[in-house]
Amino acid sequence: MTRMGSGARRLRRSMMAPASLAVIAACIMATPSWAQTATSPQETPADQAAVTASPATQEGEADSRDIIVTGSRITTGGFTAPTPTTVIGEEQIQQNTQPNIFTTVAQLPSLQGSTGTSVNTFSTSSGQQGLSSFSLRGVGAIRTLTLLDGQRVVGANVTGVPDISLFPQLLIKRVDVVNGGASASYGSDAVGGVVNFITDTRFKGIKGNVQGGLTTYGDNEQVLIQLAGGTSLLNDSLHVIASTEYAHEDGVGGGEFGTALAGGRDWFRQSTLINRNVLNDGTPQYLFRDYAQPYNYTKYGLITAGPLQGIAFDQAGNPFQFQYGSGGVPARDAAGNVRGCFPGFCLGGDLSGNVDAGRSLQSKIQRVNSYGRIGYDFAPNGEIYGTVNIGQVKTNNQPVGGMNRPNLTIQCANPFVPALIKAACTTAGITNFQYGTSNAALGNTQVYTDRRQFRFVAGAKGRESVAGSDWSYDMYYEHGTNYTDVDVSNIMLSRRFNQAINATTLNGAIVCADATARANGCQPLNIFGGNPSAAALNYIIPQNGAYQRTRQTQDVISLNFSGSPFSSWAGPVSVAFGGEFRHEFYRVRADPYGAGFANSPANGAYPADPVLLADGNNWYAGNYKNGSGAYSVKEAFLEADLPIINSDAGGRANITGAARVTDYSTSGTVWAWKLGGTWDLPVDGLRIRGVTSRDVRAPNLSELFAAPVTTTLPGFFDPFNNVNVLALQNTIGNVNLTPEIARNTTLGIAFSNSQAIPGLSLSVDYYKIKITDVISSLGAQDIVNLCFLNIAPETCGVFNLNNPNGPNFINVQSFNLASILTDGFDIEASYRWQRPLGLPGSLTLRALATNIRRFITDTGLPGTIPNDSAGVNIGNTPKWKWLAVQTYATDDFSLLLQERWFSDGNLGNQYIECTTGCPGSTANRPTIDNNFIPGAFYFDVGGTYNITPAVTTYFKVDNVFNRDPARSPYFVNPALYDVLGRVFRAGVRFSF
């Protein structure tokens, strides 16, 4: 209770300044106009109810002008698309009260594996820290197309995915989530589906939002300030809207070494999956255990092998006997075994050296975003417009505690070795010993990202009468540029570290033993305890750390037309056609210590040093590389809707089809298509729908043109000559990759009868996705073996193990070898009850659920079997996931209850769980003693109160019961579990 009280006081303090801004803004506003709703003025009342009342499945009705069918390019009134589309209206966005609209959308059950500020926080080198991107059906963000007003957005990462944090969030009136392939309509990447953000292009008035929040642990303090305005001029022909926002979340940084997480969270148990390396003794090979202590390092150092094994050092450098746990006794042999413990681990004992608790639970994030749009109605049904979106997102995370270095060799003559240890060396007759340390004395690495987006769009859209029928047109040019800077601070140069710990005495002074290192500034490092000198720290951890500078550009020209040129026996035949040209480019530059001095010439900040590797890879982590690449896309599409039944006896039915031909500059021509239909049965409100499609995903810039990384393989096995050879591994892109091909099928039934059961909507859909030619990475040995066995001849040209003109090499690349198969069900329901039990207002009940029957990945490698990860709760694909919302609203206040749940699962479907009498453990079917990972249930509550018709206060409490994440041998899975705990938010919205 004390902690909660402190958190509440901090929440009030965080709200004071923003609230003051809101009051000032309200005082200077022009004449108020309480006329804005979640829907644009062009939408009909029926459309408005569909969009704002419920996120239940929409079939894609179109209004008289605006495109509101995300699953199709056809915009003709009365058209119904067969692809199920979930719609989140502005009302639902506001009710969920999140600092980032990404979080609201990502709660949908069909979105599995989306990233955000709680994901990728353990990473140093990926460049995806703090990146908010969606993944539909668990097939990955790279297979989900995210649009803004139906238009592409420049990627915020070389994988091509955009960052939702850079979108103009206050002007978004709804989000359409297409749960199915849409490549025939929208092009590459729409394999899992499409997420389309629709802005209010005709907004009039001024509105704003001020929000603050923090967790029950008193951290991750949040501030959100948003302001938008719009007006019409020149007799309602000129429309101007603009918005700006500032958001800041403190994040939840790393905890202490051992098991103490940030903020006093106590759920971390250092759970570990221990491999006994015993396959046939009737007991399981793998053991799932808590409080596992590796015995090859400690916080301030441990002698890990030989006659002195088990001597550890405290922060002052004093030796003491390490407590192994499990009753472990050091064997004091050359291998470093510990009797009474498992291989590599003891249970309990001194856990202070564990580094996992140092990981950030959520990245710190700061968002600044500005958006503007000017539209001019040059005709009653025609508009030209231009938009500008400029945004910046900065994030910060701590990947892990310290910089762990086991398996070091220390000379007994090292002058930093304590006298007691030197004497013990003499007694034992040894001259060196094995040593491991978490390097807590060196501090913790920090990763900072800075993404800046500049996006400009110019276009025209409208409707014209041609040959007696109305035709809609939508054309635009988009240019986007994204700059991403990644900077790593407090990161060591590993080879300098190795030189610094190898100390000797020269002329009475302690110096680095290597003369070349000494001549180039080496300063000796005392590795015993936690008191390194400032000079040593400056040498091994230079002030200018690892960095990466990336520039990405995207240019798109798109032309789309839609109309009904003639009618069939059942009604107007609608068609849509168009074309698109797209050009994608990226260039990345990195620091010379990581990329290599030949590619990044040294300067004063990065002096050349013969101790370091000239070709880079010198950092402990974060060895970024240089690279560049570009490709172009030309495509054309045709889509048609043919009504086939329109009668009282037969109902109403239509068949839709589409085809798109796409020419990639890197991989040639590929086709996408879809065929489907809907049937409104004679039973009022009952609809059957289905669609099957061929969808594509082209290789992205990273897969095609990855910046090269070279490593040495000293004992690489050559199967052609049955010998081990020295080879270089070059990790590079593969310009010969071809598009992934997917087959999407959905079949469903929907019910909505305003007469029989007013306010009720139900839908059930079955889906199946099969993706072939999946782009996947292969290891060097796999590449050579696949060629040797003649399984994948395409790998034979990427290596040479008998090279007379230079070193042997293997180019490690991605290939189109793997496949993915997933299927399951989507279930959605909503019910709105006006004046429930005679009370004023309305009660709205909504529920969405997704079931994954199978999620089978086949690597395509010999000796492996396909892996079904449905129900694996250390991944992104639980068997069941649902979201339920209940809202009671009157003219004065509202109350919201929300439940989020996913089902129990396991570590992996490949495991055989047993405790005794276990079968022989194999690589494909290993045995384990505990394969259970529980699901989770989260309960949220929120509410609003209208102070005036124009000013509303609100609150929200997420994870009311403060549910902890499940124990996991891989720290935690933030893609499924809430890692922060209970969160409080409150704020004020105003609209004039």
UniProtKB/TrEMBL annotation:
Pfam family, one: TonB_dep_Rec_b-barrel
Record protein name field: Outer membrane receptor protein involved in Fe transport
Species annotation: Sphingomonas pseudosanguinis
Location of this chain's protein in the cell: Cell outer membrane
Residue ranges annotated for the TonB-dependent receptor-like beta-barrel domain, each copy included: 434-960
Stretches assigned to the TonB-dependent receptor plug domain: 81-194
Chain residue ranges for the region called Disordered: 36-65
Keyword Mitochondrion: no
Membrane topology: Multi-pass membrane protein
PROSITE patterns: PROKAR_LIPOPROTEIN, TONB_DEPENDENT_REC_3
Keywords: Cell outer membrane, Membrane, Receptor, Signal, TonB box, Transmembrane, Transmembrane beta strand, Transport
Polar residues composition bias: residue spans: 36-45
GO cellular component: cell outer membrane
SUPFAM superfamilies, alphabetized: Porins
Signal peptide feature range: 1-35
